Amino acid sequence: MADFTTDLSTTEFSTSTLFDVETYPLNQPDSDAYGIMLEQAITGLDTVSCAQLPNFIRPEIVEAMQREAAELADGAVFHEANLNPYFSNPPEDTPEDHPLNRFSPRRHGMVRGDKFARDGVIWAVFQNPDLCRFVAQALWYEKLYTYRDPYACTNVNVQPDGCEFAWHFDNNDFTVSFGLKQSDRGGDLEYVPNLRSRENENYDAVKQVLDGDRTNLRTLKLRPGDLQLFRGGYTLHRVTAPQGSERQSLLLSYVTNPTDITTSDKAIRIWGEAHPDHFARDEQLAQSG
């Protein structure tokens, strides 16, 4: 199986060349300043499920990332579907106005992870061990690893003008993203923190938000160079339709199991095709199961 996590050519990109370490001392984990930065991120995640660190990446690196993303955006795999907030199919007897039965259009593109040059700046940001350590600590994980899946490891999300990313809960526990391109208007992340829990789906409160209740709603823009850590599994959220231009963000995927990748059927459902590594994963699971 190919190893997509090793790339010696990114060694020229040190932590201090990629990130604003004067403001965010990623490379000084024992310093007081690092502790303050970490505590701020933890507080945001623990209270409102979101931590935003503005201008986290150096401006010249942001520009290089934007150029790299722009060259790849035309090759994004586009998804268009009507989905409920849970990405599920409701039981037949579900009331029409129930959140499980509330479907909205979703259209966006994703640049596959295998499209990024392994000596490029986006891959260097993804592979940076100081960033990975910080993300793990902020999210209360003992250790995280960069995701080895050849397609889903890191992606650029392309949201065209007028295309809303409708209300939903994430299937994963958290997301890590950087802003690359913000639209002239719209393109806002709107979210209601801690709306459901493991014990309670809180459908009544979800329905109120879907019906337009903005009482507990929070709004932010992910601007170029901003880092966002987000617990979307229990936080209802959407990205409003960009207006005037498209919105782009970089998504980095980290996992607790360093050997984990997805199966071929899931890859085909998401990307329209599977990589040989996905079929190898199928064989591994069949042999172990």
From TrEMBL:
<keyword id="KW-0408">Iron</keyword>
<protein>
    <recommendedName>
        <fullName>Fe2OG dioxygenase domain-containing protein</fullName>
    </recommendedName>
</protein>
<comment type="similarity">
    <text>Belongs to the iron/ascorbate-dependent oxidoreductase family.</text>
</comment>
<keyword id="KW-0560">Oxidoreductase</keyword>
<keyword id="KW-0614">Plasmid</keyword>
<dbReference type="InterPro" id="IPR056470">
    <property type="entry name" value="BesD/HalB-like"/>
</dbReference>
<keyword id="KW-0479">Metal-binding</keyword>
<feature type="domain" description="Fe2OG dioxygenase">
    <location>
        <begin position="149"/>
        <end position="258"/>
    </location>
</feature>
<dbReference type="Pfam" id="PF23169">
    <property type="entry name" value="HalD"/>
</dbReference>
<dbReference type="InterPro" id="IPR005123">
    <property type="entry name" value="Oxoglu/Fe-dep_dioxygenase_dom"/>
</dbReference>
